[in-house]
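Quick one: structure tokens for this chain, please?
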Amino acid sequence: MKPEDQAQEFELKEWEARQRRAILPAPVRPAAKWCTGTGCGERIPDERRAAVPGVQFCAECQAWSERKIGGSIGNN
């Protein structure tokens, strides 16, 4: 690989990382292992915890809260 190509690939990776940080800012609190939804307490899958920084609800409780309130609650 040419040095120019390596530099361009590096710049692209840096740009993508900046975009991810802009879209998903650092969580205010760590992701919960167990859903904090009222009466739920289900385990939050590791894949969800990795994909949604600071997640506090399982996917079902998150969907329910979004339908009820019309938006997400907290940093989910």
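Residues 25-76 form one domain.
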